[in-house]
Amino acid sequence: MKKRKFGRIPLFLGLGVLFGIAALALRLLATGELARWQARRMPQEALSSAAARPDASYALVLELARRLEADGRFREAGREYQRAAELRPTAREAWVGWGRSAYEAGDWKSATAVLGRAVEVWPGDAETRFAYAAVLGGSYRHRAARDQLREALRHDPRKAEAWQTLGDLEMALENPLGAVDAYGRVRKLDPKNRESQVRLGGALVAAGRWEDARRELEASLKEDPSDMNARYHLASALVSTGREEDRVQGLLEFSRVAAFTEDKGRVWVRLAEVSLKHGNAADAAQALEHAYDYNPYDVDALQALVRVYRQQKRLAEARRFEPELQRLQGLVARERQAQQRIGEGQDVPGNLLELGRVLMELRRPAEARAALQAAGAVGAPPAAVNQAVARLDRVVQQTRPLVGRLTPPQGP
């Protein structure tokens, strides 16, 4: 009896293996994995021919879309992903690929609609939200992009690049504490990412955490002493600690930054702030005159200069700058209004055009060009976009370089 009992074991094992293979085969057929595996093995010419047929399967169309996207043929990829989504409306991969390809092809209007719908259907999918955040951020809808990134990172917190983008968005939205947290996550995930260390230092300065900023920025400068952005943030931290020895060192750091960077205007503005903090209006006025000389479109510097002139009873000089100050303040008000409307989703194409034109008048050409390109991508009239871009090109050619005539600041 025992021999018969044990003799059945190989039979049972064999049946178990057969049932397992059958279950796996059924699973592959039910999920379409077998068809996708076969599509992935097809040569490109055969795949293109098979996918072009009206009765082509979802697996064939999706594989063609994936290959087109990998080759950078985003418009064609978008069309194939759209076909795949129509063949299988519940296929998340097809919808996300459709929106992602539309974004890369410069059709942000379609990308917004497709990915917005995908987020509604698959709210817990991080990849969908990452793609949607890219579209929103590219079209200056910073608050909405931040919300999408936060939710995406809640589901998938392993992406250092996404945390860094979140930090950038938090800084754009004037939330340095949020940026500190985001950049700190990057440091944990990618300790060798020195750029995130510099950004963390800058966010710590903006958050008023001088000692933490000093530690991060000094460590960064040990690796790359030529990084003037890190040195500028370090100088800002040092002059803010309240200690005289730090203030002296900070002024020396500012002088080094001014000597080796093209963006000297922001250095002069910070030096003016330090001078005003110590009751030295004369030095502050001189520093602000330098800042205006380097960038006459810096409304904050010009406003501070007029205020200092008035404190010094130099009323004629203050009145001389007031008309230009009022013009720049009007432009800044228009910039903020356009950004607010974009953030609220009001006529995004029209307000991106307005933002690009205002940034052009404020002589911020890189930002202006980005806004105008975004306007075209979300559906602004091509003629209006092209006209604005042509005008921007003329402005860039006619604008003198922001190079000052005066010497850089000296240390104490």
- The CATH level-2 architecture of the domain at 36-146 is identified as Alpha Horseshoe
Task: Output the helix-strand order.
Answer: HHHHHHHHHHHHHHHHHHHHHHH
Number of strands: 0
Please give the share of residues in helix.
over 70%
Q: Could you please say which CATH topology of the domain at 36-146 applies here?
A: Serine Threonine Protein Phosphatase 5, Tetratricopeptide repeat
Q: What is the C-alpha radius of gyration, as a whole number of Å?
A: 29 Å
User: What is the H level of CATH, i.e. the homologous superfamily of the domain at 36-146?
Assistant: Tetratricopeptide repeat domain
CATH level 1 class label of the domain at 36-146: Mainly Alpha
- Span between termini: 103 Å
Q: Please work out how many helical segments DSSP would assign.
A: 23
Structural class category: mainly alpha
Question: Briefly, what is this?
Answer:
The chain has 412 residues and is mainly alpha-helical. 78% of the residues lie in helices and 0% in strands. Among the domains are: 36-146, Tetratricopeptide repeat domain (Serine Threonine Protein Phosphatase 5, Tetratricopeptide repeat, Alpha Horseshoe); 157-260, Tetratricopeptide repeat domain (Serine Threonine Protein Phosphatase 5, Tetratricopeptide repeat, Alpha Horseshoe), CATH 1.25.40.
